[in-house]
Amino acid sequence: MKLGFRQFFLHTFSLLTLIPSMSSFALTEKSVTLKVAQEKNDQADSNKLTENDKIDKSLKKVLDAKVLKVCSDAGFLPFEMKTQTGEWTGFDIDMMKHFSKSLKVELKMIQISFDGIIPALISGKCDLIAAGMTVTPEREKIVAFSDSTFINGLSIALKNTEDNKSAYKSLEDLDKDDNNIAVKTGYTSDIYLSKTLKKARILRFDQDSDLVLAVTQGRAKAFVTDTTYVNLMDKDKQNKFIILPTKIVSDSFSIAAKKSSKELIGSFNEFLKTWKESGGYARAEKFYFQDQLWRSQVLGVK
């Protein structure tokens, strides 16, 4: 189709007026593209920072500070104890001393009641927990556990009387409305009995020694705690207790750390393996569980 001069002029003018608009659109589109690319780069940088922040520095932190802080609760014989002069001792303490020595750092023990020991770890008061802690599904959701440091179980102890001997043979026999059973607050026995008992009342205490006292004073019919401790108390009390023959459960003790402290737990696992291979574990086990040479320092008796 042929265009007259006027029509041609108007058509050409309209095209020329569109050029700036098209150019502006192109620039805008380019700007948007650059902005999106920049945002992607910024996000990538942000992700890198986030990943760096997630790098496990738990072992480096201990090595740099030259101090390993360990939360524990003295009074759980023979794992965590204090001598009559106030010095820390025990199977777990000995293990931590050797671990800190392998790292060439100082060991700092921190006294925390057992029911508050995991919150203390999470809040940063310590690097590890060494407190005869049993590995449970509930705790595994909150903390990271090392390889097993000791295999133990729960036992039931009652006052040694003829009536108790004839009436009680199992935990089921103790589950009666008029019976109180003493446990340590937050401990494995507390968790287990809270799920198991239907009628008996649970009395909770802060220290294992309080469990013994509750039974000897008649406030509780029985106490339930770790087999190792029950056997030690039975020896100290010269067979004043009946220990029911069947362990309630077998459990595994481990060292605990924050979920993020994988390097520190890994380092401890390597140490534990070496300590066992070198005979150190067996020597500590003999000292604390068989020879019991700590008794005079802790209990003032042989």
Automatic annotation (TrEMBL):
Residues 1-26 form the signal peptide. Residues 67-291 form the Solute-binding protein family 3/N-terminal domain. Keywords: Signal. Residues 67-291 form the Ionotropic glutamate receptor C-terminal domain. GO terms for cellular component: membrane. InterPro entries: Iontro_rcpt_C, Solute-binding_3/MltF_N. One of its GO terms (molecular function) is ligand-gated monoatomic ion channel activity. SMART domains: PBPb (SM00062), PBPe (SM00079). This is Amino acid ABC transporter substrate-binding protein. It comes from Fluviispira sanaruensis.
